[in-house]
Write a structure and sequence with these properties.
Layout: E1 9-11, H1 15-44, H2 49-70, H3 75-78, H4 80-97, E2 98-101, E3 104-110, E4 113-115, H5 117-135, H6 143-164, H7 167-184, H8 189-213, H9 222-231, H10 242-254, H11 279-311, H12 316-340, H13 358-376, E5 379-381
Antiparallel strand pairs: 1-5, 2-3, 3-4
Helix pairs in contact: 1-2, 1-11, 2-13, 4-5, 4-6, 5-6, 5-7, 5-12, 6-7, 7-12, 10-11, 11-12, 12-13
């Protein structure tokens, strides 16, 4: 009797995630040209100046994404500590080699190319936490072990804040680590307690700031002023609250279906550098609430596919890598939209894959390449 041939195992690849990723990146390029053309023409004499630079970085990002897709994701396990230490070294390199802008030193420039160490730290903490969690999955039931792992993100966050004065990136790095620990730890009681304490703290801070605002004066503390502006931006609309108020005007004037692509008024000098952190407000103005919700829906599909890949990953390390990328994209997305709509104080967070920024785009696309490699390792029975 002839032996039955074994059915070949099929490799999985998430084409939905690939299509959604390309769509968001392409949409981002269109919006960068739309939001920056007026400013670029005035400042650089070339309406496509910012678009061209972002397009070049996008091409580099696609190369990085393809390379990370072709590399077996298990290799990151071997280089977790070197990558993490390298990210720390990059932060310290800002002291002698950093390039200052707007009172903060956040970039290391090598000729025309600029690298933001904080962006490297986000990927480094994802790889480091995925490695440590997969090595200590049983021990994570103990709070001490979970805290020791999370302390690495705290160290990175503190260094980013102290050396580069980049609070938003420090928060994102620690939030990525926190979310990865949250997914890995089976006992949620501690996280519920911390969340409850955080909500009480925010409510208390809001009430305290409301009392200060009644005086009509800002304080000497830059961070506290951002909170005061968040509570009542219109009281400071002629000064520090100008950008927030103008962003809200853009959102409100867009209505349900927007003014039309390229027809924003707020990008004509009213919102400074609108192609950066406030690009979502221009999207709302030009494409309306409907367009903004459609974009958020596409992001939701992207995040859902990443979770699907994490759930079906061949091992715990692959799952945590995917969860880390999910955390990175989701946290930046939520924070950016919340800032633009004034749900939280202005923290200077870019909209992933859409806001102008070279190193951020390349690193995010490289992380997506890692997710694609994880998806390719999922085995399907025919």
């Amino acid at each position: 009797m002839a032996k039955k041939k074994k059915k070949p195992k099929l490799k999985y690849f998430d084409y939905t995630l690939l299509f959604v990723t390309i769509f968001i990146i392409g949409f981002g390029l269109i919006m960068i040209y739309s939001t920056s053309s007026y400013t670029a023409q005035l400042e650089e004499g070339d309406a496509a100046f910012y678009f061209r630079k972002q397009f070049i970085f996008t091409l580099i990002g696609f190369v990085a994404m393809y390379m990370c897709y072709k590399i077996d994701y298990h290799i990151w396990y071997k280089f977790a500590w070197p990558i993490f230490i390298f990210s720390i070294v990059l932060i310290f390199a800002l002291i002698p080699f950093g390039s200052s802008a707007n009172g903060a030193t956040r970039w290391i420039r090598i000729g025309p190319v600029g690298i933001q160490p904080a962006d490297v730290c986000k990927t480094a903490v994802i790889i480091m936490f995925a490695t440590l969690i997969s090595n200590n999955s049983v021990k994570l039931k103990k709070f001490k072990v979970a805290f020791v792992i999370f302390s690495l993100a705290i160290v990175q966050g503190v260094l980013i804040k102290v050396i580069s004065d980049n609070l938003s990136s420090a928060i994102i790095v620690m939030a990525i680590g926190f979310l990865m620990i949250f997914v890995a730890v089976p006992n949620y009681s501690l996280f519920v307690a911390l969340g409850s304490a955080g909500i009480v703290g925010v409510c208390g801070l809001y009430a305290w700031c409301s009392k200060i605002i009644k005086s009509g004066n800002l304080t000497s503390n830059f961070r506290l002023n951002r909170v005061l502006i968040w509570v009542d931006p219109e009281s400071f609309s002629s000064g520090k609250g100008y950008q927030t108020v103008q962003a809200l005007y853009a959102i409100g004037s867009g209505g349900l279906f927007g003014k039309g692509l390229g027809k924003s008024l707020q990008k004509l000098g009213y919102i400074p550098e609108s192609q950066n952190d406030m690009i979502f407000s221009i999207i709302c103005e030009e494409l309306g609430l409907f367009g903004a919700l459609c974009l958020l829906l596409v992001f939701a599909i992207m995040l859902r596919r990443i979770v699907h890949i994490a759930h079906n990953a061949p091992d715990l390390f692959g799952m945590m890598l995917a969860i880390g990328v999910f955390a990175h994209v989701a946290i930046q997305l939520v924070l950016n939209v919340a800032v633009v709509t004034n749900l939280i104080p202005n923290t200077g967070v870019s909209l992933p894959f859409i806001s102008y920024g070279g190193s951020s785009a390349v690193i995010l696309m490289a992380e997506m390449g890692i997710v694609f490699n994880i998806s390719s390792k999922i085995k399907l029975e025919q």
